UniProtKB/TrEMBL annotation:
<dbReference type="GO" id="GO:0006559">
    <property type="term" value="P:L-phenylalanine catabolic process"/>
</dbReference>
<keyword id="KW-0808">Transferase</keyword>
<feature type="domain" description="GST N-terminal">
    <location>
        <begin position="2"/>
        <end position="85"/>
    </location>
</feature>
<dbReference type="GO" id="GO:0006749">
    <property type="term" value="P:glutathione metabolic process"/>
</dbReference>
<comment type="similarity">
    <text>Belongs to the GST superfamily. Zeta family.</text>
</comment>
<dbReference type="Pfam" id="PF14497">
    <property type="entry name" value="GST_C_3"/>
</dbReference>
<dbReference type="Pfam" id="PF13417">
    <property type="entry name" value="GST_N_3"/>
</dbReference>
<dbReference type="InterPro" id="IPR005955">
    <property type="entry name" value="GST_Zeta"/>
</dbReference>
<dbReference type="GO" id="GO:0006572">
    <property type="term" value="P:L-tyrosine catabolic process"/>
</dbReference>
<keyword id="KW-0413">Isomerase</keyword>
<keyword id="KW-0585">Phenylalanine catabolism</keyword>
<dbReference type="InterPro" id="IPR004046">
    <property type="entry name" value="GST_C"/>
</dbReference>
<feature type="domain" description="GST C-terminal">
    <location>
        <begin position="90"/>
        <end position="210"/>
    </location>
</feature>
<protein>
    <submittedName>
        <fullName>(apollo) hypothetical protein</fullName>
    </submittedName>
</protein>
<dbReference type="GO" id="GO:0004364">
    <property type="term" value="F:glutathione transferase activity"/>
</dbReference>
<dbReference type="InterPro" id="IPR034333">
    <property type="entry name" value="GST_Zeta_N"/>
</dbReference>
<keyword id="KW-0828">Tyrosine catabolism</keyword>
Length: 214
């Protein structure tokens, strides 16, 4: 089987989630960088629209197919590559993992992504992004107060952690005050030096601008 190819952008939190999952599962993959900003965004070109009709990253070519949507990709990896499980065994804990993934991937990230911020406009975009991230993080913090052990759900790393860490990076990028979210901060700190998370970090990506990578 050919090595999987991930269409990715260094600073895209959705690409980053999938990179973490691939790294944790030790699945070798190649990256095809798609610049979301060059020339108005390479994701909108005809060639890439054939790969991903949503004109977004990530997309993953794997097992002879192309998959889009980060959570759907991560669940496929979990189902087909059971090594280093990223979902708990227990059904209620699985539901808790999905809950946190949903809040982040549907309730926060889409509201502060590039296409929405362009639409909101330069003047309002920071306040807008902060509002939706804080609203979502209040919910995540509350959920974590019941589910967290060392990580988001219990003491094993799950897909919820793969979603949380990149969203914390985005929160910092928009200067959100994270002090009201001590559990989120603790889990982020716990994971920042994990090799799979470090290798997936924007600053470690081949398309990261050299002045940022330093
Ligand atoms: O470098 C840029 O400014 C462009 C795009 C992004 O950050 C990615 C997003 O749209 C946000 C996200 O993935 O959450």
């Amino acid at each position: 089987m050919a090595k999987p190819v991930l269409y990715s952008y260094w600073r895209s939190s959705c690409s980053w989630r999938v990179r973490i999952a691939l790294n944790l599962k030790e699945i070798p993959y190649d990256i095809k960088a798609v610049s979301l900003i060059k020339g108005g965004g390479e994701q909108h070109c005809n060639e890439y629209r054939e790969v991903n009709p949503m004109e977004q990253v990530p997309s993953l070519c794997i097992d002879g197919h192309t998959l889009i949507e980060s959570l759907s990709i991560m669940h496929y990896l979990e189902e087909t590559r059971p090594q280093r499980p990223l979902m708990p065994q227990d059904c209620m804990k699985r539901a808790k993992v999905r809950e946190i993934c949903e809040v982040i991937s549907s309730g926060i990230q889409p509201l502060q992504n590039l296409i929405v911020l362009i639409y909101v406009g330069e003047e309002k975009k920071k306040e807008w992004a902060q509002h939706w991230i804080m609203r979502g993080f209040r919910a995540v913090e509350k959920l974590l107060s019941a589910s967290a052990g060392k990580y988001c759900v219990g003491d094993e790393i799950t897909l919820a952690d793969c979603c949380l860490v990149p969203q914390v990076f985005n929160a910092r990028r928009f200067h959100v005050d994270l002090r009201p979210f001590p559990i989120i901060l603790r889990i982020d700190r716990e994971l920042e030096n994990h090799p799979a998370f470090r290798a997936a970090h924007p600053s470690a990506q081949p398309d990261c601008p050299p002045e940022v990578a330093k």
